[in-house]
Amino acid sequence: MPLPFRIGFGWDLHRFEAGRPLRLGGIEVPHPRGLSGHSDADVACHALGNALLGAAGQGDLGAHFPDSDPKWKGVTGAGILSEVRAIVARAGWIPSQFSVFLIAQAPRLAPHREAMRRAMAEALGMDPSCANVAFATPEGVGALGRQEAIAAHAVAVLEPSAQWPASREAGSVEPGGSGGRSHGGREPPRSI
Ligand SMILES: [Zn+2]
Fold first, then answer.
1. Of 13-17, 117-121, 166-170, which gets the smallest average pLDDT?
2. Which among 168, 156, 130, 152 is positioned nearest to 8, based on CA atoms?
3. Backbone phi and psi for residue 136, each to the nearest 5 degrees, phi listed first
4. Which among 2, 34, 84, 85 is least surrounded, fewest beta carbons within 10 Å?
5. Structural domains counted in the chain
6. Considering the domain boundaries, does residue 85 fall inside one?
């Protein structure tokens, strides 16, 4: 008998890049530098998207939103989450709960916790009380500590939608390019 819920884990990392706004958790955070990416490089939303796709057995963001597709150029983190919400819905699931953990040396993110929580929950059609956003600094260690990048981890729980299991069976479509995208030797890779 299948479990009445699904759990997924997600991760993402984006390098800093001058001249771009810093977008995290569906909002803009004031900072001299943003993150590099084909999209708006919202590493928090991307980690969460990976967790949601994983919970639904639908692969990862790279498979659904290839950085080679102009359609996704500049797409916002909230936009990605809305698309992911539709993908997991077609598979018969709805987001029930999530926790996102950002690891950044700078800027200080705690003042933006509630705004991020609300923005990501809203993009997924969830009550913010079912969402959590947490932060840690890497204590100056490694690439994250040198402020070369920001990383995010996420866990998401899905519950069956009202149509389950009929829609889940109807929606058992393999994610496009299930092997994930190849960086093809490009340096540095452009993350979605
Ligand atoms: Zn990303």
1. 166-170
2. 156
3. -145, 155
4. 2
5. 1
6. yes
For ligand 1, the distance from its centroid to the CA atom of residue 81, given in whole angstroms, is 12
Compute, in angstroms, the gap from residue 165 CA to the centroid of ligand 1. 31
Any domain includes 187: no
Please give the residue range of the domain that contains residue 159: 6-170
User: How many angstroms does the Cα of residue 118 sit away from the middle of ligand 1?
Assistant: 20
Contact 93, 57 (CB under 8 A): no
Q: How far is the CA of 103 from the centre of ligand 1 (A)?
A: 14
pLDDT one-digit tens code per residue, 142-182:
999 999 999 999 999 999 997 655 444 544 444 433 333 33
Closest of 35, 9, 3 to residue 144, by C-alpha: 35
Asked if the structure places residue 180 within a domain, the reply is no
Given this model, what pLDDT does residue 165 score? 54
In a domain, 181, yes or no: no
Measure 126 CA to ligand 1 centroid, in angstroms: 22
